[in-house]
Design a protein that fits this description.
Radius of gyration of chain A: 20 Å
CATH superfamily of the largest domain in chain A: PurM-like C-terminal domain
Strand content of chain A: 15-25%
Shape of chain A: globular
Strand order of the largest sheet of chain A: 11-13-10-14-12-15-16
CATH architecture of the largest domain in chain A: Alpha-Beta Complex
Distance between the termini of chain A: 23 Å
Order of helices and strands of chain A: EEHHEEEEHEHEEEHHEHEHEHEEE
Number of helices of chain A: 9
Oligomer: homodimer
Number of strands of chain A: 16
Structural class of chain A: alpha+beta
Largest interface: A-B, 89 and 89 residues
Number of domains of chain A: 2
Chain lengths: ~350, ~350
């Protein structure tokens, strides 16, 4: 997100300072938290460097001819198990990319999918996944326009991985970027947090008890459309400054990213963040903080104060935002910091996810 | 490619007739040949069905607002080993997608990359790959604008898989599709065939001798730009009817696809197809037919007779097309058939690749 880190060359390769010759990939590099950021800033940004990539938002924004602005986003999906309460890898692959486009205020139009299949995968399982993708694509109103399929030997991939890439159109006047949060803005979450992560843990049998928690995986483009309409009624679509879906790394990590990108402080109230009782119970037993658990059908909205009420009302009128709540505000406090007012009245810094919490959660 | 196959439902899922409940994925489903086609037509087309996807070309063509036509293409790259003579998985990932866009006559603009990394992968290996991607992207003149990284446990993926998706702009007047071959058209290949496949086999140590063969992996967009210019000088860009890069499944499979899409017959002369001596020698020892070996820096062009000379001259003036040769013609013979005039004067049918030849070649 920042340009602070210099790259150096070793063995003629463009490479970052912090990664030594003998370092290796660990699971934490895929956490979506601090280690992911270090890997991306160290290994990917220096060779690929360009301003579009560096923006560091959920999707890249491309200015094409004739004034057309297009958002493009790509995701690899490696979730395990491939079926879980509330969804499967197919639904996740479609929704993950639809949501990244939606977080730029784009209307998702087209999606591509590439499949890496393990030799021996039962074809009925694959058919269940492609049917699930179809249903999610219909729900989101997008077309699957291109694909690719590779097969590797048994044991060289875990059942099935799916990469999806989507493109969407951003209409005039919509300018939603991670760098746009301003002091005084209101922070909204669209619903309960932690459902996806705990549902996947439960599918793995890692909870040790029956949880009856469903993943929230859903395409959020209809919710964003309603929000833009709500904002338009009050102060115009420019009242929506930032949208982000708190996936890997959870709400805490996503808020930290925004705080860094916008160089602002964000304060949230623990009591205001909606968490389902069984999710809270599972987190307490496992020692997890729900602020770091992945979501796949929720969004954070940072909006100007004068249109917050109408945006919130438009969210609550949509089934996907019925539990939407104001959870905090943007302040001119220490730039890049997220602060939590706890239930017991203290205030503490909430950092990005460090290390790895739940591997292969998406 | 055709709509002949009906889909049926079982267990409430949209599913193809030919795939039974108990069938499983085998390596042949990733061959790029007949089994790949059956899997795609059986498992992916019925649920995802739409005309853009059904076109079955190297990239999908999207009509956006304001008369803008965009090509989009996606590829999963699972090659083993990840480094081979003449390239690595990074160069392959960029070139594979650039070439699919180029085969629609599109000017490649932007590319996204998603990475699936194995826990324990040495970071200097990853850095070598990202640097190789950078070099290939610069060569092709495209920007890497978005990415994603996932990490899975050791043994759940083989080192690194990379999925790339590219978009490019198709300028007005360019209409290059697999369905456009016409009787009387000339068939051109841009250079020697089989180099990539044999180079990868050699890197695996599967040849049993020193071959000194380099993969041909290269971005073909500059070659296509020169060809369009060559065609323009004679009869306009519409003189170029079909372009296709013969990757998995080789020249024979790609020609069969075109013959089916255009419902024409294609006749090629064995003696006219350029093959390097060491590739021919390796194929003879291993019992392979070079017509089925993968290429990653070659293209087939099917052009109207009246502009063939100028297109061929423009190809030969480009380093990537210096060995370009006319190898046959499109006829009104049996639709969907490819015929080979052999060195010994006989004519035989050349089918798509059946089964699997070289797994994980791209």
């Amino acid at each position: 997100m920042t340009d602070e880190k210099e790259s150096v060359e070793f063995d003629g390769l463009i490479c970052p300072v912090p990664l030594a010759h003998n370092s290796r990939i660990v699971l934490g590099h895929g956490s979506g938290g601090r280690m992911s950021r270090d890997l991306i800033e160290g290994t990917f940004f220096p060779p690929f460097d360009n301003p579009i990539l560096r923006a560091g938002d959920d999707a890249a924004v491309l200015d094409l001819d004739n004034g057309l602005r297009i958002a493009i986003s790509t995701d690899a999906h490696v979730i395990s198990p491939i079926e879980f309460p509330g969804g499967d890898i197919g639904r996740l692959a479609i929704c993950g990319t639809v949501n990244d486009l939606s977080m730029m205020g784009a209307i998702p139009l087209y999606i591509t999918a590439s499949f890496m299949l393990e030799e021996g995968l039962a074809i009925p399982r694959l058919v269940a996944i492609t049917n699930s993708m179809r249903a999610a694509a219909e729900e989101a109103g997008i077309l699957i326009v291109a694909g690719d399929t590779k097969v590797v030997e048994k044991g060289k991939v875990d059942e099935i991985f799916i990469s999806t890439t989507g493109i969407g159109r951003i209409r005039e006047g919509v300018n939603i970027y991670g760098r746009n949060a301003q002091p005084g803005d209101v922070v909204i979450i669209s619903g309960t947090i932690g459902d996806h992560g705990i549902a996947v843990l439960s599918a793995r049998g890692d909870l040790g008890f029956e949880a009856n928690i469903q993943s929230d995986v859903a395409p959020l483009n209809s919710l964003v459309a309603d929000m833009l309409q709500g904002a338009e009624v009050s102060k115009g679509v420019n009242g929506i400054h930032v949208l982000r879906d708190p996936t890997r790394g959870g709400l805490a990590t996503a808020l930290n990213e925004i705080a860094v990108q916008s160089q602002v402080s964000i304060t949230i109230s623990e009591d205001a963040v909606p968490v389902r009782q069984p999710v809270l119970a599972a987190c307490e037993i496992l020692g997890f903080d729900p602020l770091y658990i992945a979501n796949e059908g929720k969004l954070i909205a940072i909006v100007s104060e004068d249109c917050a009420d109408l945006v919130l009302a438009s969210m609550r009128a949509n089934q996907l935002g019925r539990d939407a709540a104001v959870i905090g505000e943007v302040t001119s406090g220490p730039p890049g910091k997220v602060l939590l007012k706890t239930s017991i009245g203290t205030t503490r810094v909430v950092d990005m996810l460090a290390g790895e919490l739940l591997p292969r959660i998406c």
